[in-house]
Design brief:
The structure is a single chain. The chain has helices spanning 38-42, 55-58, 261-270, 293-299, and strands at residues 72-79, 85-95, 99-116, 122-141, 146-159, 162-177, 182-196, 209-216, 223-229, 273-282, 285-292, 310-318, 321-331, 334-344. By secondary structure, the chain is mostly beta strands. It has one domain (17-349): monomeric porin ompg (Porin). The chain has a 14-stranded antiparallel β-barrel.
Length: 359
């Protein structure tokens, strides 16, 4: 019986050179890279450089935690593909003179599978799931415009009778200039170790990654854009399908096909880029669009590209709750649908409700 193992992460703040050449599909605990908020999903799958009072965003960049999230709770549910579902729940707390904390659980359920032997005889069903317990901390340093943060993750995975656990660490820094709506961030993700592998003697690597991003909201313009550069640790993310390699010579003449080096260079650069934009219709209503070039290039069908790589969604406030919806198109086979809800528990106890530009 073949069981595809899915992989996970953490805790060790030391980089090793061997970790600097890992991309998706080559590591364990890959579920940690799934967009876990509707807002993030709608904006292309990544958003590390917008600092407001949205606890959902701080889950991918711990340095975005702020005192405005004190006693906030956030929940998210994602209807993924092939009966796969995942989500999270998180709670944030501020302590004077100490900093900001959040605790959360990130889970993924792969659903039920039919157990069968090599010749197709069935013997019931089995399940597969993964989970990460996260503890994050952030505080401002130097001045209120620069914040650093870290998230410690404890990961557990069960795939049929195979189990694994590990730990990972994210560290991040965010600089904001509220006067001109600018923010910049860097996140180093998933430094750690798989302590117990699925198979003895076959320890796997975690999906280590370095990301940088900026966002900007021009004055008097109800729009914010963000640009994220992913996988800073590895330049060439090009995937070549072994079943359909690119032509290197003319099939009729046999002469070498001249390559457009500028186009190749631009393509390699764009494979790192995630673009997002938020339209701030009112202080309680937001429209969102995103574009993920790598997702489009790897999952589109040449004969019918469709909307692969594009995403969209919206967010709104009703009473004391913030709702968000995100829809990301991966392939012609269908999109994913993300739903998030958050609220400030202080508002239920008569305390002043804290709010900043958007959520």
């Amino acid at each position: 019986m073949n069981i595809r193992k899915l992989r996970y992460l953490l805790v060790s703040i030391i980089f090793s050179a061997s970790a600097l050449a890992q991309v998706g599909g080559n590591n364990t605990y890959e579920f940690l890279n799934l967009p876990i908020s509707a807002r993030v999903s709608a904006l292309g799958g990544n958003l590390i450089s917008v600092k407001d009072n949205d606890l959902n965003v701080s889950l991918i960049n711990p340095s975005l935690l702020s005192d405005s999230m004190n006693n906030n709770i956030a929940l998210s549910y994602i209807n993924y593909f092939a009966d796969i579902n995942y989500g999270y729940v998180a709670f944030a707390k501020h302590f004077d003179k100490i900093g900001n904390f959040s605790a959360g659980i990130h889970y993924l359920d792969y659903g039920k599978f039919i157990r069968a032997d090599d010749i197709g005889n069935t013997d019931g069903t089995f399940g597969a799931s993964e989970m990460s317990f996260n503890l994050a901390y952030a505080r401002s340093i130097i001045d209120t415009n620069l914040t650093i943060g870290a998230t410690l993750k404890t990961i557990y995975s069960q795939l049929e009778s195979f189990t694994s656990w590990g730990s990972a660490l994210d560290i991040a820094a965010t600089y904001v200039r509220p006067s001109n709506g600018f923010a910049a961030a860097v996140v180093i993700k998933n430094m750690g170790r798989q302590w117990k592998p699925y198979v003895v003697g076959n320890r796997e690597k975690l999906p280590f990654e370095v990301q940088i991003g900026i966002s900007k909201k021009p004055k008097h313009v109800p729009f914010r854009f963000s640009i994220i550069y992913e996988n800073l640790e590895q330049w060439d993310l090009t995937y070549v399908d072994p079943a359909n390699p690119p032509l290197t010579e003319d099939p009729l003449t046999g002469e070498p096909i001249k390559q457009n080096k500028t186009k190749i260079l631009a393509d390699k650069f764009m494979l790192h880029i995630v673009l997002g934009g938020e339209f701030i219709i009112t202080k309680n209503l937001f429209l969102r669009l995103g574009y993920n070039y790598q997702r489009r290039e790897e999952l589109k069908i040449p004969e019918k590209k469709g909307m692969a790589g594009f995403s969209f969604g919206f967010g709104f406030r009703i009473y004391k709750f913030h709702f968000s919806y995100g829809r990301a198109v991966y392939h012609l086979a269908g999109p994913s649908n993300n739903f998030s809800i958050s609220c400030d528990l202080n508002s239920f106890y008569g305390k002043k409700f804290k709010s900043t530009a958007t959520q």
